[in-house]
Amino acid sequence: MLKKLASGPYLIWIVLFIVVPILMVGFFSLVQEGPDGTLTFTTANFQRVFDPIYVGVWWRSIKIALEATLICLILGYPTAFILSKMKKRIQTFAVMLFIVPMWMNFLLRTYAWMTILGKNGILNQLLALVGLPQMTFLYSEGAVLLGMVYNFLPFMVLPIYTVLAKMDRNLIEAAEDLGGNRRIVFTKVILPLSLPGVISGVSMVFMPAVSTFVISNLLYGGQYMLIGNLIEQQFLTVGDWHFGSAIAIILMIIILITMAVMNRASGNDPEESGVNLW
Amino acid sequence: MSKWIKRFYIGLMFAFLYAPIVVLIVFSFNDSKSTAKWEGFTLDWYNSLLQNDYIMKSLYYTILVALVASVLATVIGTFAAFGIFYMRSWQQKLVLNINSIPMLNPDIVTGVSLMTLFVALSLPLGLGTMIIAHVTFNIPYVVLSVLPKFRQMPNEMLEAAMDLGATPWYAFKKVIFPEIKPGVITGALIAFTLSIDDFVISFFTTGNGVTNLSIAVYSMARRGIKPEINALSTLMFTTVLILMVIINKRTKKEDI
Predict the structure, then answer these.
(1) Tens digits of per-residue pLDDT, B81-122?
(2) A89 alpha carbon, distance to own chain's centre
(3) When you count CB atoms within 10 A of the terminal residue's CB, does the N or C end of chain A come out lower?
(4) Host domain of residue A278
(5) Residues in chain B with pLDDT < 70?
(6) Would an 8 Å CB–CB cutoff place B11 in contact with chain A?
(7) At A278, is the pLDDT very low, low, confident or very high (cuts 50, 70, 90)?
(8) Residue A266: which of A144, A159, A189, A113 has the closest Cα?
(9) Do A76 and A187 belong to one domain?
(10) Which chain A residues have a beta carbon less than 8 Å from that of B76?
């Protein structure tokens, strides 16, 4: 009896504040309000998502998120690899050093780049010192990309590092004993074994990158549209909740599918991680 | 040779990660509005930060919301984990799947869906709705940090206590709670930290002039660079640093 009662408030809470809101967004995305306030079912909101203007926004969001993910992977894999090879005593400390910046508020980390890249920022001061002309770094697509890489790089490094650090040394030694040179040992043994880490790193970078509106808003300004900005605008300034809901639903589906595929690909034991998809 | 390349590479990565933070902290003590040229040491920005009503009010709301939301989430989540532990397998699976939705969903989707609900229920957006939203995204983390403690606990503890005549509530208080306490405290600390740090969900679920620090930073940063934000960053970073060191010490102790 007590066992059943204990989770009662929680069950009510998650139904009311997790399940119902998502169902409502789903409902909103499927209806449109007539001039007299009547609701009619329609697929118009979803059709509008495929308007060329909005397809452009999806394309841009996915492209920049993929670019950020790729750069994080290229920078992050060697980092994780070197970290995992460090002496144990230094290793723990070095990994800690990698985690600490993540504890800083996300907005402040993004704001930091505003002060560095700005017109009177440090970067321009340095350019002036060596006699180069001032440039506008801020308010460009490059700045947004940099902001994403900076904010999400640890999300790539840490899962890869975890897999590499736990890797069975015997397998590597066996490969070496059997005559594999360093390149072969890496491509045939280490890399395939580290794939689960790579996959979870990729999804942990891609997901926040594709849905952000803060980085694009601060480092590019209002004119630059990513999917996140579009949703924010529809809900907070334009007030077209039906269209906004349709975009949110599609974004959610994209993310959930990505997660499901990634989970399956990395062969994560759902019981162990506590997070699984049905 | 390759050793030096490796060191150089790691050094570059650390420089990349820390340079912006160092810049923020150093220029929070700069005696000028500039965030590029050093003009001498001052604490003026800390002073004007403390006199900035908007920021002080946001600080108050940040701490209030984080305290209330993390306490509520911890209580609800702990009892939830207790109930979930004794559920049948398929129920457990279903509930844990729902539990993971706020962790998997992009924050912006969680934010707008909660906002939709609040507006549909015609709850005025403000302090109350922000607390509800924070409890909602905190609970899953509390559940996931308490549930493993139940799994580690010997199975018959509750039955044994009740066979010996303890009431269910007494058994929970005296037998079960001491076992799961480390998980509860870790869960509460995670909830508190997440709450302090949240921007996106708060942004969509608040109103009526109620803002937290993240929202204050966002709205100030959109209007340009303000040295007070640097001072604020330094203070927030130090606070979170201390909090996380405490959390880390705790989890390490548990590992042993």
Answers:
(1) 888 888 888 888 888 888 988 888 899 999 999 999 999 999
(2) 31
(3) N
(4) 16-49+240-278
(5) 1, 251-256
(6) no
(7) very low
(8) A159
(9) yes
(10) 9-10, 13
Indicate the pLDDT class of residue A156, thresholds 50, 70 and 90: very high
Domain B52-255 architecture:
Orthogonal Bundle (1.10)
CB–CB contacts below 8 A, A to B: 231
Task: Give the residues across from B41 on adjacent strands.
Answer: B30
CB B58, CB A107: distance < 8 Å: no
Q: Is B237 on the interface with A (CB under 8 A)?
A: yes
Question: What's the pLDDT at A266?
Answer: 67
Q: Which residues of chain B are within 8 Å of residue A277 when distances are taken between CB atoms?
A: 97, 104
- The Cα–Cα gap between B206 and B11 comes to 41
Q: Does A216 touch chain B (CB under 8 A)?
A: no
Look at A71 and A131; give whichever has higher pLDDT: A71
Residue A5, domain member (yes or no): no
Contact call for B136 and A125, based on CB within 8 A: no
Whether the per-residue pLDDT at A276 is higher than 50: the answer is no
The answer on pLDDT for A275 being more than 50 is no
